[in-house]
Amino acid sequence: MAIPTEGETIQIHSYKHNGRIHRVWQETMILKGTKNIVIGANERTLVIEADGRTWITREPSICYFHAELWFNIICMLREDGVYYYINMSSPFVYNNQRLKYIDYDLDVKVFPDMTYTILDEDEYEQHKMEMNYPKEIDGILDRNVEKLISWIKQKRGPFAPDFIEAWTSRYQFYKQLNE
User: What are the DSSP E strand ranges found in 9-134?
Assistant: First the structure.
């Protein structure tokens, strides 16, 4: 598998289980790229929905993807703190300057005080039936939600206190290089 290069700009493509495109983020700058972990950043990037609607992200975000975990984490840097939006998803694949994953509907929102809420359980149940998710997906996602909650409580990975500071600093460095 190819590995994105630090400092390069890529697209992020989210798909649904049926293979249809769900959402595309036009520009994300790579801050770290290994075979297992990709960390990127974007700010005011164009997002294209499956139905053709577009919108622009409001705040800078640090994005965390893992090739073995069934979730990805978007760290949104707002004036009142860092908000985290987690997509329960397949592990990522990367090729042709595109990071790709399957979105499995369930989301978790984490607030600056590290409280969290699980979202879209009804959407997951609906799509599970409509798209015939394999039975194994329930167990995989349950285990990964547990792992994610453990990370939140232990302040591991992107939830660690120094994660945002370190990667925001790296993002600023690459932005200045590209000016």
Answer: 9-15, 21-33, 37-42, 46-49, 54-56, 61-66, 71-78, 81-89, 93-95, 98-110, 116-119
